[in-house]
Design brief:
Strand content: 15-25%
Number of strands: 26
Number of domains: 5
Strand order of the largest sheet: 14-26-25-24-15-22-23
Largest sheet: 7 strands, mixed
Structural class: alpha+beta
């Protein structure tokens, strides 16, 4: 199954995006399509039997146009022509309204197009003046027509019907004036065509300008990576473009410069600002063999580094890709708006028709009937309904990414607020995973160095955090290495079978454990324990100590204040686990748990209607992360591309879980506010447009309707942008 993000042109409201999404999901070979109205993108998962050309053809058949693969580059700056056009047509609209309405407000009237003295001149002038506006709004009419033909009517369909109803009736009135029936001069609605088109265009122009701010976080990420690098070639410094850099190239980074691609330092050391990824402003010291990340800023030193990841392989590209894919997924609350939008436009068309017929049956003039019908079509605004959820999600995704929190699916931002239970893995999560050997009980003829060499050689093949305690030992050649899930490791060294692990090894090997006293001594001092068994005989018992994270105790206290139940889940023995738990105020501890047992614990909690978040290292806790309602992994940036959790905290700062919870709550609140205002607007405005409040002097015409429609969309946009100003109280 392949995945692609395509840029789409022609979407203007939720009816557009819903129609396109529905059409694509009907096509054979497409497993899932999710359309993002805000970013004008579609995320498509499809089978190998389809090509990109097929996908673009489907989009065209649905009435839209594919602009090709979105390549994570910043979109072009605002087209100057659009600004010039909006200014020109603003001036033309003012002139038009002056000509058609000056007499109503006692302003001087231009003599040769005076409607009373020269009705033919007046009507021809208005007709000719309307033509440029019809051309200006041609994109609206094309979209409205195509979507009507494809049985997916959208906002443009409403506008098209309304504008052409006014135009055709006014054209009929112009013909009647030519034939000598001057009474029609007061019943021309060319100004409705002009003002509706202009206000729609103005609204979209403003929407586009303001909505660009919702994408600024993604654009900021893209801008981080420089366009050029300094290549070391034949002991010379050569400036090259990023595209010219190849894996293995030696690059130079001087103080104040930015790392061009992901790599490894081979010479020098320096402090680097990685705040764009971690959200932390404190520079990080890097030395030889340390990894550097594209976009990080060299604060004070000269380094040379080898290029390891280029182009889309870099961490920053992985982050941008994840953020974009997340914004192209949909939160569950979106389904409410989508479901309503599917019926909204057809319902408005039916209401407008009934309004027209009702006015005629009640004895109102044809002019008033057509005017009311057009007003209903214009005032109804599916735009605000369609923008309510995706705008808030895009802004929140950007806020999370700036804080070093990568959320992979939009639904996570909604569901985090439901969490009532948070389970933490111990080693590498509640603790730093900076393990060290504290005590050795040596029951063999090996020296301490020989014993550590044996253990270190086997641990070197493992990814478990415990292996970090043996990184400075002499490595021997080993064979037949095996990982025994939840128990330990097995390997052969110099034809001797060696086992490393916890006390569950004894049950597996069917031998008696006679070292419980030593184990208890190590456990009571807060050690994790490794038994070393050679040919089914215990040759050593090693105590490994870890360091509790500095920020974790305060984080646990604050999570409890948010009414979250906290559980520590670990494979360590009970004594060791309880010592760590006591240090950080965790009362509920489940120890001696195999990886499969962790998933069983989570399943039991979910069966009791708990909504569970699992926090682990993203490697050893993969099954538990996948089983939980929301899996959170703490990782260095280098693991981002392959990580399978729902949320990644890039800099290992556990306290950012609090940020995630608060952002989730505020996002959900913002979405509900947006939906309320969108529904409230239509509930109030449509009845006024129909004319229900005319008896008390409240009425509306198409020009005012178009203005209110624009204000409705702007209200939702501005409210969504408020999320960017959130001050997280921690």
């Amino acid at each position: 199954m392949k995945k692609i993000i395509l840029k789409v042109d022609g979407m203007t409201c939720s009816a557009c995006s819903n129609g396109l999404e529905k059409y694509l999901n009907k096509q054979n070979g497409i497993s899932n399509a999710s359309v993002n109205l805000v970013l004008s993108q579609v995320l498509i998962e499809y089978e190998d039997t389809l090509t990109i050309n097929d996908l673009e053809r489907f989009i065209l058949e649905a009435g839209f146009k594919s602009l090709g693969i979105y390549n994570y580059k910043i979109e072009e700056k605002e087209n100057k022509q659009a600004t010039i056009k909006i200014i020109i047509f603003a001036i033309l609209t003012i002139i038009f309204l002056y000509i058609s309405m000056a007499h109503m407000i006692k302003l001087p009237v231009i003599s040769f197009i005076n409607m009373n003295k020269y009705p033919i001149n007046y009507s021809i002038f208005l007709f000719l003046f309307t033509i440029p506006f019809l051309i200006y709004g041609m994109d609206i009419f094309k979209s409205g027509y195509k979507n009507l033909i494809h049985k997916m009517p959208n906002m443009d369909t409403l506008m098209t019907i309304g504008v052409f109803a006014s135009f055709i009736y006014s054209l009929f009135g112009t013909i009647m004036i030519f034939l000598g029936n001057n009474m029609y001069v007061s019943n021309l609605y060319f100004e409705s065509c002009v003002t509706v088109i202009f206000f729609i265009k103005l609204g979209r122009y403003i929407d586009k300008k303001i909505s660009k701010k919702t994408k600024s976080s993604i654009e900021d990420l893209v801008q981080i990576t420089p366009t050029k690098a300094i290549l070391k070639k034949n002991n010379q410094e050569v400036e090259v473009t990023i595209d010219e850099v190849k894996k293995g190239d030696i690059l130079i980074c001087k103080p104040g410069n930015v790392i061009a691609v992901d790599g490894k330092i081979i010479k020098g050391n320096a402090y680097f600002d990685e705040s764009f990824i971690t959200g932390e402003s404190i520079p990080v010291k890097k030395k030889i063999n340390d990894k550097v990340i594209a976009g990080s800023i060299n604060s004070d030193g000269y380094i040379e580094y080898s290029a390891e990841k280029i182009g889309r392989e870099t961490v920053i590209s992985s982050i941008v890709k994840l953020v974009l894919e997340a914004t192209n997924t949909k939160a569950p609350i979106t389904r409410l708006a989508d479901k309503i939008s599917n019926y909204f436009v057809p319902t408005i068309i039916i209401i407008s028709i009934f309004t027209f017929i009702g006015y005629l049956l009640l004895g109102f003039s044809f002019n008033e009937a057509i005017n009311s019908m057009v007003t209903v079509l214009v005032v109804a605004c599916p735009c605000s309904l369609g923008l309510a959820t995706p705008l808030a999600i895009v802004v929140s995704e950007g806020l999370c990414s700036k804080r070093g929190i990568l959320v992979k699916k939009a639904e996570v931002l909604e569901n985090v607020s439901k969490i009532d239970t948070i389970i933490f893995d111990k080693t590498g999560t509640l603790t730093y995973g900076n393990l060290k050997v504290s005590t050795i009980f040596n029951f063999s003829n090996y020296t301490k160095e020989e014993l550590l060499s044996i253990v270190g050689s086997i641990e070197a093949k493992s990814t478990h955090p415990i292996s970090r305690a043996f990184t400075n030992t002499k490595i021997k050649e080993i064979t037949n290495f095996k990982n025994i899930a939840g128990i330990g490791l097995e390997a052969e060294i110099e034809n001797k079978k060696i086992y490393l692990g916890n006390n569950k090894l004894f049950k597996k090997l069917k031998v008696e454990n006679t070292y419980l006293k030593q184990e208890e001594e190590l456990s009571s001092d807060g050690n994790s324990i490794i038994y070393v068994i050679e040919n089914k005989k215990v040759i050593a018992l090693i105590g490994i100590k870890d360091i509790v994270r500095n920020d974790i105790k305060n984080t646990i206290i604050k999570l409890k204040k948010l009414n979250k139940e906290i559980i520590m889940l670990t494979g360590d023995n009970e004594n060791t686990a309880n010592i760590i738990a006591k240090q950080i105020n965790i009362e509920h501890v489940i120890s001696n748990v195999l990886p499969s047992g962790k998933t069983d614990v989570i399943k039991k909690l979910k069966n009791k209607n708990h909504y569970v978040m699992m926090v682990g290292d993203g490697i050893n806790d993969a099954p538990a992360l996948a089983t939980s309602n929301i899996g959170v992994s703490i990782n260095s940036g280098t693991d981002i591309a392959t990580n399978t959790s729902d949320v990644i905290i890039i800099d290992d700062n556990i306290s950012k879980i609090i940020d995630l919870i608060l952002i989730s709550k505020k996002t959900l609140k913002n979405i509900k506010q947006n939906l309320f205002w969108a529904f409230f607007y239509n509930i109030i405005m449509v009845p006024i447009a129909i004319g229900f409040l005319k008896p008390i002097g409240i009425k509306m015409n198409p020009m005012i309707a178009a203005l209110f429609m624009t204000i409705s969309s702007l209200t939702v946009i501005i409210n969504s942008l408020r999320i960017r100003k959130i001050k997280l109280e921690r």
